[in-house]
């Protein structure tokens, strides 16, 4: 990609696009030039909120992609549309940032991997949790030997209620309740992508997955795939699990989704805790380490969840300018999707699933 300002179009300007916009509005190397949504009012509302008075508003993806004044598209649509829109964008010669999960099945993922690898333009699946500042700091510490060799990761997803959370549009919940559009449950498959990405980021390649996926209906009628527990093994004799618990009366401190996320990584010499994600409960240090009888708390780390989007977007803009490989690549994203699909499959089949 050329090194001048990257002209960017958003495809899908729903709930999450607000967090994608932050870095584009402040980074001198990229600019949002067009907003495409089948609902023109949503796109116009975002343009006004972001101060983009001269942005092109489009309702048709094909017309948007036919424009030659767009270098990069950020795709943020319901999951069943990821494959067709991403394939069209690649074919139209655009660089692509595709929200997670890359698509609904491994067969679809293979098509995307093939198209992305054949393209001369960059392709990234947008995973933000691995760019969350406490996660980046934890990885640096672990790589520097702070807890010895990591042996186990325990991840907790804990949605609840929140007085301060943002409003989620009814439509954004509606498509997530249909498996044909979402590909799986809202917590284990959709949000779970982030947790499987974290597990992969810290522990390496997964080899086996076993899950029990429950079901709970919230007061507003939303069906959640919780309580659930997913266990996994990795290469090098490492293990981990993801526990998903919906606590209807648990007050979460957040400006985004009413959910807390916590991670504990046990190593051969110490233990590390990441104490916040979407939100938090109380005011724990975002990162803490126990080693040699002492606890070290790390307070001075940005913890707004939007920072994970800022850092992930900044990483891609830099990768586009320097022509380096972004994370997640198509192959990496396929691996995370395989991890998430194995959790769904294991619960259905009542047995462990091997990942090749
Ligand atoms: N990384 C994260 O932490 C995170 C968090 C939330 C959502 N997401 C992802 O972002 C994507 C969007 O989620 P959301 O919560 O913003 O959903 P949403 O329903 O709020 O927004 C989707 C938007 O896409 C538009 N749309 C639908 N079909 C379209 C089409 N053919 N062309 C153009 N626009 C179309 C809809 O009108 C809507 O405005 C999903 O892939 C989701 O998994 C990621």
Per CATH, the superfamily of the largest domain is: Dihydrodipicolinate Reductase, domain 2
Structural class: alpha/beta
Q: Which cofactor or ligand species appear?
A: nicotinamide-adenine-dinucleotide
Share of residues in strands: 25-35%
The low-confidence parts are none
Topology as a string of helices (H) and strands (E): EHEHEHEHEHEHEHHHHEEEEEEEEEHHE
Which strand order spans the largest sheet, edge to edge or round the barrel? 16-15-14-13-7-12-11-8-17
Description of the structure:
The chain has two domains: 6-126, 3-Layer(aba) Sandwich (Rossmann fold); 130-303 and 340-349, Dihydrodipicolinate Reductase, domain 2 (2-Layer Sandwich). It contains twelve helices and 17 strands. The chain is α/β, with parallel strands linked by helices. The strands form three sheets. It has a nine-stranded mixed sheet. The radius of gyration is 20 Å and the shape is globular. The structure holds nicotinamide-adenine-dinucleotide. Residues 11-16, 36-39, 42, 61, 76-79, 81, 99-100, 128, 169, 171-172, 190 line the site of nicotinamide-adenine-dinucleotide (NAD). Nicotinamide-adenine-dinucleotide (NAD) binds at residues 11-16, 36-39, 42, 61, 76-79, 81, 99-100, 128, 169, 171-172, 190.
């Amino acid at each position: 990609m050329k090194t001048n300002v990257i002209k960017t179009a958003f495809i899908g300007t729903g709930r999450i696009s607000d967090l994608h916009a932050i870095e584009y509005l402040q980074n001198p190397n990229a600019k949002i030039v067009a907003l495409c949504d089948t609902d023109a009012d949503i796109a116009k509302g975002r343009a006004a909120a972001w101060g983009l008075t001269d942005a092109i508003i489009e309702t048709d993806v094909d017309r948007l992609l036919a424009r030659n004044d767009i270098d990069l598209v950020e795709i943020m649509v319901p999951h069943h549309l990821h494959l067709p829109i991403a394939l069209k964008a690649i074919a139209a010669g655009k660089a692509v940032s595709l929200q997670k999960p890359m698509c609904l099945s491994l067969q679809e993922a293979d098509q995307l991997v093939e198209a992305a690898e054949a393209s001369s333009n960059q392709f990234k699946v947008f995973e933000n949790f691995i760019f969350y500042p406490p996660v980046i700091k934890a990885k640096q510490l672990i790589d520097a030997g702070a807890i010895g060799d990591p042996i186990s990761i325990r991840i907790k997803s804990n949605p609840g209620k929140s007085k301060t959370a943002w409003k989620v549009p009814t439509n954004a919940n509606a498509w997530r309740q249909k498996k044909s559009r979402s590909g799986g449950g809202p917590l284990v498959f959709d949000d779970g992508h982030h947790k499987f990405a974290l597990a992969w980021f810290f522990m390496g390649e997964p080899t086996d997955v076993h899950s029990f996926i429950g079901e709970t209906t919230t007061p507003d009628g939303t069906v959640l795939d919780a309580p659930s527990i997913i266990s996994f093994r990795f290469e090098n004799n490492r293990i981990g699990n993801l526990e998903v618990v919906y606590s209807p009366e648990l007050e979460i401190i957040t400006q985004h989704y009413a959910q807390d996320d916590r991670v504990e990584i046990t190593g051969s010499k110490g233990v590390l805790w990441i104490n916040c994600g979407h939100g938090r409960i109380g005011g724990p240090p975002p990162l803490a380490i126990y080693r040699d009888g002492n606890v070290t708390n790390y307070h001075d780390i940005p913890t707004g969840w939007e920072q994970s989007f800022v850092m992930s977007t900044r990483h891609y803009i830099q990768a586009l300018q320097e022509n380096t490989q972004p994370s997640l690549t198509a192959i990496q994203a396929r691996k995370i999707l395989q991890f998430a699909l194995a959790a769904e499959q294991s619960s259905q089949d009542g047995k462990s699933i091997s990942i090749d």
